[in-house]
Amino acid sequence: MFGRKTQDSDTVVRLIASQLRRDISVGVLAPDTKLKIDELRQRYGGSAHSFREALTLLASEGIVEASAQRGFRVASATQSDLEDISRLRAEIESLGLGWSIKHGDLRWEGEVLAAFHTYSKLCMQTDADRQAFAIEWDEAGRHFHTTLVAACRSPRLIGFQDRLFTQSRRFRYAALVEGSIDLAAETRGLGEVVEATLSRDADRACELLSNQILGALTR
């Protein structure tokens, strides 16, 4: 009975965290916004305890900042933040892709192809209506990049990659809506990454992926 209660509470926390994470990613909760638990409860529903747990979880992901004196607030999103996140993403994802190419099997290759197919299709749809498909596009991009490193045999690297991608989502979403992402060019670039990956050309695949991620700094 107690185990079920704990499990239900954990589910509520994850759901709240998911909603807050999405609203931070799409700018509904803007950078540096103070996150007052009473106001959040009125907006989303849920207990004060659940929101504290959810905000603590998001703080561990780096998209919320916690202070004993000032409570919680949305993390900043400056150009310096983007540069730091992008450079780390380029290093971590390239490393993970290299290890995945070394260890990945045919099933992993199929998953990479499927994830890229979904993402490329959503890039085409999103290019026609960036507001309508932005969230689906973002999720498909996250899944594709996660799949690239999924066979690296390092849970810690996978966790770090996921955290960095989560931190990058606000910048990607803003760039998409502002029209500064060339979705056709991104699709072509990632297609080259996939081609090199399936050819098991780790050096080329990692270089292409790194360049693709660092392209965010020149938009």
Automatic annotation (TrEMBL):
Gene3D superfamilies documented for this protein? GntR ligand-binding domain-like, Winged helix-like DNA-binding domain superfamily/Winged helix DNA-binding domain
Membrane spanning stretches: none
Q: Which Pfam families match?
A: FCD, GntR
Please state every residue range assigned to the domain named HTH gntR-type: 10-77
| Keyword check for RNA-binding | no
Please tell me whether the keyword Ribosomal protein is annotated for this protein: no
Quote the SUPFAM superfamilies the UniProt record gives.
GntR ligand-binding domain-like (SSF48008), Winged helix' DNA-binding domain (SSF46785)
Q: Keywords for this entry?
A: DNA-binding, Transcription, Transcription regulation
Q: What's the superkingdom here?
A: Bacteria
Q: Which SMART domains match?
A: FCD (SM00895), HTH_GNTR (SM00345)
- PANTHER family reported for this sequence: HTH-TYPE TRANSCRIPTIONAL REPRESSOR GLAR (PTHR43537:SF20), TRANSCRIPTIONAL REGULATOR, GNTR FAMILY (PTHR43537)
UniProt-recorded name of the protein: GntR family transcriptional regulator
